[in-house]
Specification:
The complex is a heterodimer of chains A (about 290) and B (about 300). With about 290 residues, chain A is an alpha/beta fold. Helix content of chain A is about 35%, strand content about 10%. The chains are: A alpha/beta (about 290), B alpha/beta (about 300).
Chain lengths: ~290, ~300
């Protein structure tokens, strides 16, 4: 599926083209935010762009006019270092004024480098890995007790899966049949010091998580149709928490960054920004 | 105090359906009643304190009061980052209960001695620290802890600790309670070891020294007014805490005194800055480290000599 052109009238986009456009916008935001402030983690934002786009574009029941609406789906970004990618979606969905984006990472800014609940629409602050899933289970326990239908989504990294606290929560969720919990791993195969396979090889991750009592699906984390279809099918099995391994590419969308470790740290250089925005097809939204 | 805690919590939970208890596989013959009566508000995380604390935070973020419960250092140090990033940063209504703190489990060894908890919990913004001296304080403290909106660390005794107060007490978070009055020196205690400070004051009385005893049941926020008043009115202060000598009650009192400009003789009694590898009961270890009423009284007398 080709990326919808900026020239296309939004109203005539298919739903999937809309997701793709949102994903590219998320990438555009992440690139401009990190380049302007010489900040890190753009690669982590790029790999999860379609996941975030489909979540905010069509899956999460949230209301920008009432961010704390009691029946909202809860979404926690566990890989809090990719905050820029979620701020992008929240800005696009009008949870806060788009000008806030310009204050990212800046002195007295509204948006910190790791995600913070002080931002409207952000459910919970993270930044240290392995914190979100336990918190999500607490929220899920309350929802079950109250007979509420909302779901609790956690978007994790492979680094998150190194943390013992994640596995504590994985065991508990299955024990308590928390089928209102959905963990999605943005499996881009690269963590802070190298390839996941060379550091702590998580594979076979699906088999491991299944053995721990979850229902697992592996998908292409850049295929918006697959993402949507998968997330519309939650819970995969009644009585079991759902786990999605989304196979992604670190730095996706910017060819020179794809599958590199350095894009975890280095932003797009200022002199390359215009070219990269053209490559992403979003130069109309982000004039340099 | 442990049993009193569980009994009182049960009574409160009967009237307040927002209260949840999350344990980390600790509480034999204590938490079972809660689990039976409120199965949908009791969870055993297993031996997994990080998940216990994270889940409690998630429960609290949904408008509830979540109590985490374990012994010694397990509900604090093992999951410190969850307490800092999840609970305190979000001002979540999580109450961290440590049964058998200080040297309660003395003979079990260093792993089961929580002797740095005040210092570490005290440095977390928005954390309230309660360490009741006796049953009367503990019962009142449980109610106040539940009423308080935000994180609380509750350092709970384990045994049939003796009473410090006679009659009714007026317990407010952040307000020290005067156990007995005196004008010569003030002994400030926190937690169950306060009883020993009180016994020391009785010994001093026999020697013609009138000691004021304050129960500083709230280590944070510290009652600065009670400290400066005591400094002005009695002219000497000794702190007594079942905790490392660094950065606990004595440290908090020293901070208040040094910034108040009231220069008085002052001494901290605490556990030396070391790990306690001596094997012995709580009482034996406390006596060993200078917490016998006689030792506390002697320390107080030496402080008074500095004033002369």
């Amino acid at each position: 599926m080709s990326i919808p052109s900026r020239k296309q009238d939004n109203t005539h986009m298919t739903k999937y083209e809309g997701y793709q456009r949102l994903a590219q916008l998320i990438r555009g935001y992440a690139v401009t935010m990190t380049t302007r402030t010489l900040s890190s983690h753009v690669g982590s934002c790029l790999s999860m762009a379609e996941l975030v786009a489909v979540l905010y574009g069509g899956i999460l029941h949230v209301n920008p006019k009432d961010p704390l609406w009691p029946d909202r789906d809860r979404f926690i970004l566990s890989k809090g270092h990719a905050a820029a990618g979620v701020y992008a979606a929240l800005a696009e969905k009008d949870f806060f004024p788009k000008e806030w984006i310009n204050s990212y990472y800046k002195n007295d800014g509204k948006l910190s480098g790791h995600i913070s609940f002080h931002v409207p629409g952000v459910e919970f602050s993270t930044g240290s890995l392995g914190h979100a899933l336990p918190v999500a289970l607490g929220m899920a326990l309350v929802a079950k007790r109250k007979g509420k239908k909302h779901r609790i989504f956690v978007l994790m990294s492979e680094g998150d899966c190194d943390e013992g606290s994640t596995w504590e929560a994985v065991m508990f969720a299955a024990q308590h049949h928390l089928d209102n919990v959905v963990a999605i791993v943005d499996a881009n195969r690269i963590q802070a010091l190298g390839n996941v396979a060379d550091i702590i090889d998580l594979e076979p991750l699906a088999k491991k998580i299944e053995a721990f009592g979850w229902s697992v699906r592996e998908i292409d984390g850049h295929d918006v149709q697959q993402i949507e279809r998968t997330l519309l099918d939650i819970p995969f099995d009644s009585g079991k928490p759902s786990f999605v391994i989304a196979r992604t590419v670190k730095g996706k969308g910017i060819r020179y960054m794809e599958n590199t470790l350095s894009c975890h740290y280095h932003c797009v250089p200022q002199e390359k920004l215009a070219e990269v925005l053209v490559e992403l097809g979003v130069e109309d939204a982000f004039p340099v | 105090m442990r049993s009193l805690f569980n009994k009182t919590l049960l009574e409160i939970a009967e009237k307040n359906e927002r209260i949840y208890l999350i344990v980390a596989d600790i509480g034999f013959e204590e938490v079972e009643r809660f689990a039976e009566i409120f199965p949908d508000r009791f969870f055993n995380a297993g031996v997994a304190e990080q998940n216990m604390t994270g889940m409690a935070c998630g429960i609290a973020m949904e408008g509830n009061i979540a109590i985490t419960y374990s012994i010694a250092n397990f509900p604090t140090l093992r999951c410190l980052e969850q307490i800092r990033n999840d609970v305190c940063y979000h001002k979540a209504n999580v109450k961290i209960v440590a049964i058998g703190s200080g040297l309660c489990y003395g003979a079990l060894g260093v792993s089961h001695q929580s002797t740095e908890d005040f210092a570490i919990m005290r440095s977390l913004p928005d954390m309230v620290i309660l360490a009741p001296a006796d049953f009367a304080e503990a019962e009142a403290a449980i109610h106040k802890m539940i009423e308080h909106q935000g994180p609380v660390y509750f350092r709970c005794g384990r045994r049939n600790e003796p009473p410090v107060h006679r009659g009714k007490i007026d317990f407010e978070i952040g307000k020290a309670i005067q156990v007995c009055d005196g004008g010569d020196i003030t002994l400030i205690g926190t937690g169950t070891v306060t009883h020993r400070a009180f016994l020391a004051a009785e010994l001093l009385k026999k020697r013609g020294i009138k000691a004021r005893v304050l129960s500083m049941h709230t280590v944070k926020p510290i009652d600065a007014e009670a400290i400066t008043t005591a400094a002005r009115e009695t002219g000497a202060i000794v702190t007594v805490e079942e905790h490392n000598i660094l950065a606990g009650l004595g440290g908090a009192v020293a901070e208040v005194l040094s910034e108040s400009g009231i220069g008085i003789p002052f001494k901290r009694i605490g556990i030396p800055d070391t790990y306690v590898h001596l094997v012995g009961s709580q009482d034996w270890l406390l006596d060993h480290f200078g917490f016998s009423p006689e030792s506390i009284a002697e320390t107080a007398q030496k402080v008074l000599e500095r004033r002369r």
